[in-house]
Amino acid sequence: MTAHTPPTEPFRDPRLPFAERVDDLLGRLTLDEKISFLHQFAPAVERLGIAAFRTGQEALHGVAWMGPATVFPQAVGLGATWNPDLVRRVGDAVSREVRAMRAKDDRVGLNVWAPTVNLLRHPLWGRNEEGYSEDPRLTSAIATAYTRGLRGDHPVYWRTAPVLKHWLAHNNETDRATSSSSVRPRVLHEYDLRAFRATVEAGAVAGVMPAYNLVNGRPNHVSPYLRAHLRTWTDQELLVCSDAGAPSNLVDAEHYFDTHEEATAASLVAGVDSFTDHGTDSSQITGRLRRALERGLLTEADLDTAVRRQLSVRFRLGEFDPRDDPHEATAAFDTPEHRTLAQEAAEQAIVLLKNDGLLPLAAGTRVAVVGLLADECKLDWYSGTLIHRSTPLEGLYERFGAERVEFAEGVDRVLLRTASGAFLHVPVAGDAADEVRGAEGALDPALLAGRTDLPALTTDAAGTELALVDWGGGVLTLRAPDGRYLSVAEDGYVRAAADQPGGWVVQETFSLEPHGDGHLLKHLGTGRHVCVSADGVKVADEDPEVFELVVAERGEEAVARAAARADVVVVVAGNDPHLGGRETEDRTTLRLPDHQERLLRAARAANPATVLALVSAYPYAVDPAELPAVLWTAHGGQAAGTALARVLAGDVSPAGRLPQTWYACDSDLPDLLDYDVIGSRQTYLYFEGTPLFPFGHGLSYASFSYDGLTAAAGEEGVRVSFSVTNTGRLTADEVAQLYVRAVGPSRPRPRRELLDHRRITLAPGATAQLTFDVPLSAFAFWDVAQERWRVEPGACELLAGASSEDIRLRTEVRPAGEPALPRAVVTDGLAAASFDEQRGVEIVDRTKVAGDAVTPADVSGGELVYRACDFGPGVCEVTVEVAGEGTVELSLDGGPVLAELSTAAPTRGPYDYVPLVAAVAAAGVHDLHLRLRGPLRLAHVGFSG
Question: Which of 352, 577, 616, 711 is such that its CA lies 20 to 30 A from the CA of 507?
Answer without folding.
Answer: 616
